[in-house]
Amino acid sequence: MNAPLLRYLLLPARPAGLMLTAALTLGFAFCGIAGLFGLPMFVLLASSLCVYGYVLLEHVAHGAHEPPVLSLDMVNPVSEQRPLIQLAIVSVVWLAIRALSPHIGTVATAALQALALAALPACVAVLAIADTFWQAINPLALWHVMRTLKFSYLIIVGVALLAGFGLAGLAGTGALASWELDALGIYAWLALFALIGGALFEHRLELGLQAVHAPERVAQRLQSQLDAERDRFIDGVFAQARSGNLRGAWQTIEQRLASEQQQTDAYEWLNARLARHEHQRLASRLAQAYLHRLLGQDNGRVVELVRERLALDPAFHPRTQAETLRVADLLRLAGQRSSAGALLESFERDARAADISAAVGQIPRADAPPTDEV
User: Fold this and answer.
1) So what's the pLDDT on residue 369?
2) Is the Cβ–Cβ distance between 43 and 35 less than 8 Å?
């Protein structure tokens, strides 16, 4: 048996499910005592149970780990019509089979009845998650669900048959009181709907179901929030750079790198966003620091990073002569001889400029190519 799927049978045993089971059991017991006077209450309770089953199925199919709490909106027949639609579908199919029975014989009738019962869980599943109820009577949609769920669908059918025959057998023996049978029936009903919802969630990718609480959706929302926060940070850095405070902008970047413990991911997202700025000095300075960390660890990324930088900043080079020579060798090995030559020329040109400035005692201009100081 599929243990991950069968765990959904325990979902109604959570507090919200147990409270509903207890409340409905007491209500049905009162209806039994009241006789005909309890009939309206019985219809209301049965309707609430049917409605809650679909709500539970939908919640579980979208990745919920707890059964929802029953509310007045759920039992409103105007806002929740799926149980009535399901009843209408079952009634029409049953009447159609009865009408055909005299013409097709007993064996064919039994086969149609078995097929209809086997397709009922798929009909329930489609009705719970489809945009329109017409999909619930579309044979292609039902077959798609059954074929996609595969062994999981066989488990659903098996559990439904086991629950149905088991409750019927217990009722026939008289071993349990009526309220105990009611409690078991309510739990079995909820467990079956939770099982169908769980099967849909487990096969959500194959079905194309956009589950709200799926791990990939949660990760996507968290990533979107993180991207928005990073964009706000970069906007602040760009504002400092545009005002001429490049040193302050770089210090802000260093603080962010320190807060993220110099992780590779921090360098990557900063590098991607800084490359959007009209001036590439901050991006080149970051690339120098990143190359210092990458050399000897991920030489393939070193080659990619240098090629990206040279395309945006032809004057880019690593911080030191040793790093420049080493990166140039990596570029040659990767077949990027022109990039290696450009890198060496850029470094030699800046080295000569620095020597001349030191000889005449000049201070480097603010717009000089990036070095250790931005």
Assistant:
1) 41
2) no
Q: How far apart are CA 42 and CA 48, in angstroms?
A: 10
CA 26 to each of CA 58, 323, 334: distance values in angstroms, whole numbers, following the listed order: 26, 79, 77
Note the pLDDT tens digit of each residue in 266-305. 999 999 999 887 778 899 999 999 999 998 889 999 999 9
Distances in Å between the alpha carbon of 55 and those of 73, 130, 174?
A: 11, 13, 33
Contact at 8 Å (CB) between 340 and 331?
yes
pLDDT of residue 201: 93
Q: How many CB atoms lie within 10 A of CB 51?
A: 22
CA angle, 159 then 138 then 120, to 5°: 20
Q: How far apart are CA 349 and CA 347, in angstroms?
A: 5
What are the tokens at 115? 């097929």
d(CA 54, CA 111): 28
Report the distance separating Cα 234 and Cα 339, nearest Å: 29
Residue 266: its pLDDT value, please?
Answer: 93
Tell me which DSSP letter residue 35 carries: G
The answer to whether 306 touches 323, Cβ cutoff 8 Å, is: no
pLDDT value of position 76: 66
pTM of the entire structure?
0.68
Which pLDDT does position 363 carry in this prediction? 39
Cβ atoms of 28 and 179 within 8 Å: the answer is yes
Using only C-alpha atoms, the chain has a radius of gyration, in whole angstroms, of 34
CA-wise closest residue to 65 among 212, 163, 187: 212
Contact 210, 220 (CB under 8 A): no
- Which residue, among 217, 219, 188, 186, has the nearest Cα to 201 in the 3D structure? 217
Separation CA 259–CA 145 (nearest Å): 48
Instruction: Look at residue 109 in the predicted model and tell me its pLDDT.
Output: 92
C-alpha 284, offset from chain centre: 36
Which residues of the chain register pLDDT less than 50? Answer: 362-373
| Cα(372)–Cα(220) distance, integer angstroms | 37
What is the DSSP track for 122-162?
A: HHHHHHHH-SSGGGGG-HHHHHHHHHHHTHHHHHHHHHHHH
Whether 79 contacts 68, CB under 8 Å: no
